[in-house]
Design a protein that fits this description.
The chain has about 300 residues and is an alpha/beta fold. The protein is about 35% helix and about 20% strand. The protein is built from 9 helices and 11 strands. The strands form 2 sheets. Strands 6-7-8-3-9-10-11 form a 7-stranded mixed β-sheet, with helices on both faces. The chain binds adenosine-5'-triphosphate (ATP) and magnesium ion.
Length: about 300
């Protein structure tokens, strides 16, 4: 028995093909765990199934196979214990910034007084640097500000698991950098368990304790679990000078450019079949010797 806070076991997603042809297997045999308080990012090429995995973790989509267990209980359907930040902010346009947060906080703690709800919500607006604009409607905020509101809202409701699907995907590099630092600050304060999708390797290294790497689809797999052995607190400007930074970065880029393709698809199936291929290889490029060791995948007999 494993003691992970979140356990993903044998997860697969298939879509039946129109006309009864063979089903499309988006990914299969996804197995990984997330520890309490851990920040885990997942990276993989477009279409490999990252959002699908996140939506299954949220209880918004159903797996074709396998289970997600959180805190010893199987996930089935959405719950306030799991908060989601989508790429498109998803704020309520007719409510003020503050009311977009108090609305969620009140739903989370129905017994709280109005003052308690407002005080709690303002604390999180302040953490993302939005004090002073709490009466504005979302349409009166910039894209970056809107995204900060949705991050504040997600953290304010203190879900046991926070799920973020490319939360900074639509932002320019400068705004993205600022919000990343705010996210670190808020995470260091709350120590939420976070599962986040990103396409940006630098963002993943800055934020994560661990990075999961997915091979290309179809039949994608979670192939590696990469440790980010860089001490916290981290900042964007300092982290690039850490000796582990470029080792980890090179490892991730090499995966995305080369190995995600080599390890993918049915052509490779017989080499990575059964038990051995189902658990991601654990790698720690930051503490590895200068010449990174080749990762060996145990091959199935025969
Ligand atoms: N209803 C559907 N029927 C068939 N295939 C689907 C359906 N919905 C999604 N897919 C396929 O599932 C795959 C995974 O989609 P998903 O959105 O999870 O990918 P992703 O890794 O998040 O990609 P991106 O990085 O572009 O956001 C895609 O290849 C998509 O074509
Ligand atoms: Mg996606």
């Amino acid at each position: 028995m494993s003691s992970h806070f979140v356990e993903v076991q044998g997860l697969a997603k298939r879509y039946p093909s129109p006309g009864g042809a063979q089903a499309l297997t988006v990914f299969e045999n996804a197995n990984f765990g997330i520890n309490k308080g851990e920040f885990v990012c997942i990276i993989g090429h477009s279409g490999c199934g990252k959002s699908t995995i996140l939506n299954i973790l949220a209880g918004l989509d159903e797996a074709s196979d396998g289970v997600v267990i959180m805190n010893g209980k199987e996930v089935s359907g959405p719950s306030l214990e799991r908060g989601v930040v989508f790429q498109n902010y998803s704020l309520l346009p007719w409510r003020s910034t503050l009311k977009n947060i108090t609305f969620a906080v009140q739903a989370r703690w129905p017994g709280w007084s109005r003052d308690q709800v407002v005080e709690h919500s303002m604390k999180f607006l302040e953490l993302v640097g939005l004090k002073g604009v709490e009466q504005r409607k979302p349409s009166q905020l910039s894209g970056g500000m809107r995204q900060r509101v949705s991050i504040a809202r997600a953290f304010a409701t203190q879900p046991q698991l926070l799920l973020m699907d490319e939360p900074f995907g639509a932002l320019d590099a400068l705004t993205r950098g600022m919000i990343q630092e705010e996210l670190i600050k808020i995470w260091e304060e709350t120590h939420q368990t976070v599962f986040m999708i990103t396409h940006d390797v630098d963002e993943a290294i800055l934020l994560s304790d661990r990075i999961l790497l997915m091979t290309n689809g179809p039949q994608a797999r979670v192939a590696e679990s990469v440790q980010v052995s860089i001490p916290r607190p981290r900042s964007r400007t300092d982290i690039i000078h850490h000796p582990a930074y470029y080792k980890i970065r090179n490892h991730l880029v090499d995966f995305l450019v080369n190995r995600s393709k080599e390890l993918s698809g049915s052509a490779q199936r017989q080499d990575f079949s059964a038990v051995d291929s189902t658990h991601p290889a654990v790698v720690d490029p930051g503490t590895a010797a200068e010449t990174a060791p080749t990762i060996t995948y145990r091959q199935a007999a025969g």
